[in-house]
Amino acid sequence: MPRDDASLIAPPRAYGEAHVAAGLRGGHSHLAGLRQSGSAKVLLPRASDDDGLTAILLNTAGGITGGDAFAYRGEARAGTRLTLSTQAAERAYRAQPGETGSMNVALKADEGARIDWLPQETILFDGSSLARRLEVDLASDARFLAVEAVLLGRAAMGERLSDFAFTDNWRVRRGGALIYADAVRLSRDAMAGPATLSGAGAFASILLACPAAERHLAALRDGLGPAGGASVIRPGVLAARILCADGFALRQVLIPAIEALRGAPLPKAWRL
To answer: pTM of the full predicted structure?
Structure first.
């Protein structure tokens, strides 16, 4: 017989996939492929030909909670330039015990191509559980710039995280060979340690992979100041980490750093 038991009712879950490909036509980057499903949508704002193709990702579910799953793919074909960003900050909400939301990103840049992965911040709410993964495949002369910023609650709302789980794994390959790997695992107990966040309320990771990445090191260190550090991991790979008290302070450091490495302004969605 039917049971009046709330435990038998599975909460709704959000799923979304989006794939954007840039191709070359008349010497300019244009949309060569687009697929979207579920709660993942893609907006394509108009841009000058010199800006390449810009795609803005939108999560119509309004955030990610335990059991939700999103997957994004970006492909910059030979000689093109593709920028992927988000319409707003992503939000990781409280998850049910034993459940984790996931976001998987796969990017590919062919010969002479450039791809920029520039999502806006991810906000972790108390009780959230989120696992992210970034996989990048670069041709021998392709250029890649990535930023991921994370806010540990909303400082202006007086939020403090008492319980959460967050993992973030990056793997970048050039010509099939691994050139960069980074793994972040954070929880309540890791927030105050001197080897992790030292009490910071916001942090960001930046990666630039291109043949002349070393040329940007001195200027990037000067721009970050005491808020962050930058290093050349290996020839052609420059990485940086930034720690700030809150999201406002983080943006003051992060935006100029990204624009300097990119050589162009951020997508307008960042300033709306």
So the answer is: 0.92
